[in-house]
């Protein structure tokens, strides 16, 4: 993939015609006066950073739980890394950096404690009531569950930020109305779109697309870093991926005898650079082919315009396969996952039996009289918002035995 360095947008005021225009936003569900000092996308980003949901990410698992050590990524540090990469991609492609950063910062709001284990556990217990999807939960948080403003629930983000949150991985509905991801579109997304149509059959903006691919770049790289730190990965295992093997050869040739920590960092920084430059090169070529003249043209394009080249897509799959087999399905990790799942399952049933146990929940006085489906959704909201530490400590308070997570 050839990257055109002369076309990179590193100067001020160089927003491309296919970028989202913050001064021509489709607006908010609840109209608000404009700010004299910030664009609407800046305000969205700032609101996201100041939420309770954002702060809670610091004690939510990415891959390794807090007991494993302080140097492993959490949802918060991962989110910050994604936002940095998204902003770099947006600047290079002359997009609105604030919108790209905002979508990156909010993309993991709906994740549960204990990473994907928690999501799987909540989906299982909530399946009779519509299931659980972290992307849909992110939407619930920013449109309903954050209670900060006198005039509305949620953050009242712009249409562009909300569509980026919901569709950053592509359209949710195909041309004939079928769900593009196999399962039904999550109910919370459909319910919100009935009020504020996010156009689920189209692609999202380029700003949202760079946020999505930034997520892949970040965790592909940093899960390797954390895997090496944990000992589940070794440099020899990285040789299974030709792309990583070449990076290691390059570093060894340039810095013979380099200590392990520096060696790891040199590999990681080269991996991020190569993947970022690959996305920029692919996007430049796709933009030349599709010739979008507006953000609407991006949404109506035949394909995602900001993603990996075919060659890097192969590498991406190889890295994910390595991480899946060596880390995500490692026996120690699977044991911890089973214990974490049992904690959330126990808490769900305890709260369904006695909602008064949900101390501090703002619906606790009404929840006992709600229909079972509504009660289950509110219990799911409460559990999804927990940090790892709070879930463990709450389980210890309510049960005689709490599984060890290490």
UniProtKB/TrEMBL annotation:
Q: Which keywords appear in this protein's UniProt record, sorted alphabetically? A: Hydrolase
Which residue spans traverse the membrane?
A: none
Q: Which SMART domains match?
A: HDc (SM00471)
* CDD domains (alphabetical): HDc
User: Can you give the residue ranges of the HD domain?
Assistant: 75-220
Stretches with biased composition (Basic and acidic residues): 29-45
GO molecular function annotation: triphosphoric monoester hydrolase activity
Q: What InterPro entries has UniProt attached to this entry?
A: dGTPase, Diverse_Catalytic_Enzymes, dNTPase_2, HD/PDEase_dom, HD_domain, PHydrolase_assoc_dom
Q: Where is this region: Disordered?
A: 26-45
Matching SUPFAM superfamilies, A to Z?
Answer: HD-domain/PDEase-like
- Residues annotated as signal peptide: none
| Gene3D superfamilies cross-referenced by the UniProt entry | Hypothetical protein af1432
So what family is this one in?
Belongs to the dGTPase family. Type 2 subfamily.
**Which NCBIfam families does the protein's record reference?**
dGTP_triPase, PRK01286.1-1, PRK01286.1-3
Instruction: Write the protein's name.
Output: Deoxyguanosinetriphosphate triphosphohydrolase-like protein
